[in-house]
Amino acid sequence: MTSEPWPRQPGYDALAELYDRTFPGPWQRPLDRHSVDAFADALPRGGTILDLGCGTGHVTVELAFRGFNTIGVDPSARMLEIARKRYPQRTWITGDAHFPAADPVVRAAGPVSGILARFSLIHVPPEQVPAVLQSWAAHTEPGCQVLLVFQGLLESGQDVEEFPHAVARAWRWNPSSLAQALDEAGFAETWRAIVCPDQGHEYPECHLSAVRR
Ligand SMILES: C[S@@+](CC[C@H](N)C(=O)[O-])C[C@H]1O[C@@H](n2cnc3c(N)ncnc32)[C@H](O)[C@@H]1O
Description:
With about 210 residues, the protein is α/β, with parallel strands linked by helices. The chain has one domain (about 15-155, about 170-190): Vaccinia Virus protein VP39 (Rossmann fold). It is built from seven helices and nine strands, in the order H-H-E-H-E-H-E-H-E-H-E-E-E-H-E-E. It has a seven-stranded mixed β-sheet, sandwiched between helices. Strand 1, helix 3 and strand 2 (about 70-75) form a beta-alpha-beta unit. Helix 1 runs parallel beside helix 4 (about 75-85) and helix 6 (about 130-140) packs across helix 7 (about 175-185). The longest helix has 13 residues, at about 10-20. S-adenosylmethionine binds near residues 9, 76 and 118.
């Protein structure tokens, strides 16, 4: 049993070094960079960004280099350890996809301008996703930007479906269903982009941007 309120990540803990070797940089495809650029461009200079499910922190640090106050959050102790070791001067805290409202570092940072969740919301059981999005809305102000990146479900009429993932249980979403869940929580979609499957990627990858109303 764990006393932590967030789900432990034995898969990511066990495979963190391999993950780091497999993905040694922040970008796998050009759109990865461009969607994060578009997210960052919509933020106020020096604003605070929460990277929920930051993993080894590559993308978080890209944003820190651009002058943002970044807070990387992840439930995997080992993934965070790699991030901390590589970028000790940045802020890394243990947590899950919920808004870490009780964390003293987050409280001290003031209003959050942007929330990034790249390939992390896929690990949240779908029935818990509305509560996660509501926690974001409860602790942000109008104008807060959100960028979700996730494996998409386009070919069936379903909202969400579990898919085989090498590391942990994961679900891929119809982007319209996730946009609707965001909308119901108080975030209006601003744009979406979808990369088609290719040899290295079995599923479409969706980039979904929204703003807090
Ligand atoms: C595929 S990695 C993505 C890392 C990073 N966001 C990126 O874009 O490179 C998924 C990360 O989500 C984290 N994760 C797993 N379950 C989570 C949850 N319930 N809430 C937040 N993050 C979670 C994992 O520990 C892992 O570090």
